[in-house]
Amino acid sequence: MSEHHKETFLTKYIFSLDHKMIAKQFLITGMFMGVVGMTMSILFRLQLSNPGESFAVLEFFLGEKWAPGGVLDPNMYLSLVTMHGTILVFWVLTAGLTGTFANFLIPLQIGARDMASGFMNMLSYWFFFAATLVLMYSLFVESGPAAAGWTIYPPLSALPQAIPGSGLGQDLWLIAITLFVVSSLLGGLNYIVTILNLRTKGMSMSRLPLTIWALLIVAILGVLSFPVLLSCALLLIFDRSFGTSFYLSDIIINGEALHNTGGSPILFEHLFWFLGHPEVYIILLPALGIVSEVISVNSRKPIFGYKAMVGALIVIAFLSFVVWGHHMFITGMDPFLGSVFTFTTLLIAIPSAVKVFNYLATLWRANIRFTPAMLFAIAFVSTFITGGLTGLILGDSALDINIHDTYFVVGHFHIVMGVSAIYGMLAGVYHWFPKMYGRMMNKKLGYFHFWVTFISAYGVFFPMHFLGLAGLPRRYYTNSAFPMFDGLTDINEVITFFAIIGGLVQLLFIFNFFYSIFKGTKASENPWKSNTLEWTTPVERIHGNWPGEIPSVERWPYDYSKPGADEDFIPQNVPLKEGETEH
Amino acid sequence: MESILVGLIILLSVIVLVQLLRVNELISEVKNEDPNEITEKDNNTQGILTFLIVGVLFLAFVLWQFKYWGIHILPPASSLHGATIDTLMNVTLGLIIFVFFLTHPVLAWFSLKYRGLKNSAAYYYPHNNKLEVIWTVVPTLVLTPLIIYGLNVWNDITNADTTNSKVIELYAKQFNWTARYAGEDNSLGKANYKLVKGLNELGVDMEDENAEDDIITREVHLVVDQPVLLKMRSQDVIHSAFLPHFRVQMNCVPGMTTQFGFTPTQTTAEMKEQEGEDFEFVLLCNKICGAAHYNMKMKFIVESQEEYDTWMASQKTLKNTLTLN
After folding, report:
1. Which residue does chain A place closest to B43, by CA atoms?
2. What's the whole-model pTM score?
3. Complex-level ipTM
């Protein structure tokens, strides 16, 4: 039975229950937030490479109050850093990435007509939308948006006297994140239930595409960790507004001794990072899933070591819950705990190494088709290696002492989590665009976008390791207060140069995206000659996905270039031939 | 006016782009081909580009950075435990640089070698248990000693015997540092944030007799090769006491005392000879703490016992400071 029915503009494009439309809503909101977050980073990069200089663009965006005479105000600098992190981590790489691809791919790839609860799914988007509005509104309040860093450690985030951003801006931040958590939980529960219950006939767990495995594990991580962030935020709201002392103790601010005693900021850090670290993998795992799929399809080869890939995902996800303390080696936490967290953290290198070698083995003797998506997937392998390796330094508590909170950390996590996840997301957009909009994205613009992005991303983030090894702390408004950092100007200029180039070329991607929605060349049903079920749906996208019966699944998704087959791919719904064994 | 111009320029460039794409598509139409289909020519070009940019340009850029920006890396540690951190760092860096330069050329080479050309075909190779065991076991074998080595260094640093260390308190607040020497008795007087008032800016409890000989200073002098134990407190928000040259860092958390013990091994004078006249050991704040976070610093001076004694003799004890005024 088809669920396709007559729809008005409102039910089709706004309050849609169709998972494909909701995915696009997440994607476009995420892209919008991506542009906002990226613009912020370029604004503060201008200050970092040219401290104290006047820029018309700063005054244009920030006005006379926050950029008097075109020079960035130190408080606004911290606000921009904070909002850049918040937007990129939560809005773009969590909601924008998982929201898009979990919604889009889960029903299509497991053979379901829609999510288990279309209504909850719609609510998930609209909570996210409300969160977005609140967060955006906080940019325009008198005292400025939140400024205590995206990790909002109290007491700085708890005391409006400590920094202007901790006034109304921080309240709005907390409300936005609360709405965000609700959205994430509604989505996550839906993803889990859908994957476990709505798989079509024959789609056993061992025949799930790796994208779905990754999204399932991500949803479980989110459901287990986001509630902790919620409680963490609620206690902070209590401390801020109702005079409690969960995180506050023995404080004098602006000459006034506060009544709070007995609380501990360390408690906040534990709660925050109990979410915060799984969050890193909530961001990374969907990208790993997408990349596995894209590499296999475009290598025209099965992904190497399917079971090991699933096992590695599960091990990484499990370990991600027992490593949060590596963010806290030098906070005054018991050093013995530091040893435990060093041990668990460095263990993550093992499943990560397995994934990298499996990707390389997939490329070995492949027949690579270089779509823009494939290029982004290859670039992902590169950044995953580069950023993962520096994790061996940061995860080691003894080494962390001297590079904690320096630019080394900024370089590390931007490469391994930021850039990698963005590459995964862009690979996903280029790869599934034909299924989303029935048209192709422009190939030449895609290539151009890729190469400029690849070069500028490394141009921005690799040099940061040297800043960090020189001892430069992150979140410094300028490094000109310390003569020991005087020699670092040229590095900062290179970084800003590439940041601007890399930022501008993303506009070209957005242009390509919207141009192709309306004017792109028409796509065929299965333009990449792919095996997974979404490519058996018609080009016209209907609510319910398949006009007739849902296809049943007869084989795993990675039968590419299988000996004895007529073509170099065998879709999942094609029955095994007589005498053919399943991989 | 300017913004109208900028808007117009943006609009015009979008129109130009659209027209370019249309022309491109029309040309393809005339040639009767799909402009967005990935052709053998694309595979060839992009495969070669991947090799050149990922495998050559990027790796060359990395080497270039080590050559030209490596000089900015901090000089070798000026503390006992710092030297062990540096060795661990060099071992780890050596390992990751090796793996980096092993895997990247493979990635770039496979991209080039296995680019899809006419008549090329992929090899169906879904798994190989032996290979997978190898690349699970080898990283494990490499990591195990590295983890044990790291844990040993960490335990030596954090469990160091501090019974003979000179105790100095670092007191952080927005946006400066204050130091308090424990004095003759090497024991800091108790403190309470409610006692912070007037000249008693650290809230020291003067009822406590340990407090009488405490000495408050605006810079820290240390005796070379003599162990010190830094005890940190904060008045308002979290700060972090970061002494990069000594490989020392510890957060200063309101409501609790944290500590870090170390032994300086080089004097400021020696470092000036080595690094230039401008060199100073410096304490930075390394936890976001507010608008002037970037400018929160205190000078550390490492000197001989005689120089230290001369300086110390000129300092007033807390009892003197508070009663004389």
Report:
1. A370
2. 0.96
3. 0.95
